[in-house]
Amino acid sequence: MSQGTQLSVEVQHVDVGANRLLGLDGVAVAAVLLEDDGARVVHVATTAESAAACPVRGVFSTSVKGHALTRPRDLPYGVDRVVLVWRKRRWRCRETACPRASFTESLPSVPARSRLTSRLRSACGAGVAEDFKDVEAAARHYGVSWPIAHAAFITHTAHALAAPLPAVCVLGIDETRRGKIKWAQNEQTGRWQVVADRWLTGIVDATGTGGLLGHVDGRASAKVIAWLEAQPRDWRAGVSHVTIDLSASYLKAVTQALPDAVVVADRFHLVSLANQTLTEVRQRAVVRSN
Question: What DSSP letter does each residue of 95-137 carry, written as one string?
Fold first, then answer.
């Protein structure tokens, strides 16, 4: 039987085993069909309820106007795709001033106007944060668009981002180039100029387990100062050392926002600068000897 076949779904005729296997709160499995490509078409209906509240007026309705078929996307079953076909009720709103007049039922597992189940959205957000290298990889795995996967990631991380920062003794500040430098040729002079060179400043717990604490767009001292000064005073007072590269902008930011902290230049940049200076001295000595 094909996916488009209409079934008369009644909650009284459910497969208890299939219902438990699906595990989607608020709906009961009425039938499971198998497509030629291996996809499982699961026909479900809302579990028994005698009324629903209008999302606009909040008035409970007991009058069913009809039914509507929706196909919210769900997690796969093993390696096979699952196609949900939900026959949900359309209720009449008895409030005369209601602009909608009728509404379809929704569930926490399948919110109103959502084309995804809540668990698929949650799994996608967690996948971006923990399992996949980037948003695009998670979106491709779960078969959703990049904006949906990114929004799921934002929702997944909202709670952690809202939590207070862990106590930090040694703070690390460094920049990361975002993407490649973009060049364009000046039509008048013919010279090539940089038109895009984006940077991010990462602020990390350098010796503890706090990991990445924050990202600042750009690498200007003013933005780093703003991020540091936005943190609680007690948290800033606990920072005893700050490790940076040889950036004057970061030195200014730390000096102003964390005046009691000791600034430490990281060894990589110190050794690199020493080697560069030694190379320049040797080059000058060779030139003079010739």
Answer: -TT-SSSEEE--BTTB-TT-SB-HHHHHHHHHHHHHTSSSHHH
Judge whether 247 and 175 are in contact, CB under 8 Å: yes
Inter-residue contact 195 to 180 (CB < 8 Å): no
Alpha-carbon torsion (71, 75, 76, 77), positive or negative: negative
The DSSP call for residue 73 is: B
Residue 158, Cβ density class (10 Å: 0-12 exposed, 13-18 middle, ≥19 buried): exposed
Residue 64 has what DSSP assignment? E
**Strands 52-53, 60-61: pairing kind:** antiparallel
Q: Residue 186 is inside which H or E element, if any? A: none
Per-residue pLDDT of the chain (290 residues; tens, 9 = 90+): 444 444 444 444 555 667 778 888 888 888 888 888 878 888 888 886 767 888 887 788 888 888 888 898 998 877 778 888 998 888 888 888 888 888 888 888 888 888 899 999 999 999 999 999 899 999 999 989 999 999 999 999 998 888 899 999 999 999 988 888 888 888 888 898 877 778 899 999 998 888 999 989 888 999 999 999 999 999 999 999 999 988 899 999 999 999 999 999 888 888 888 899 999 999 988 888 77
User: Is 203 within 8 Å of 174 (Cβ atoms)?
Assistant: no
Distance in angstroms (rounded) separating the CA atoms of residues 168 and 243: 12
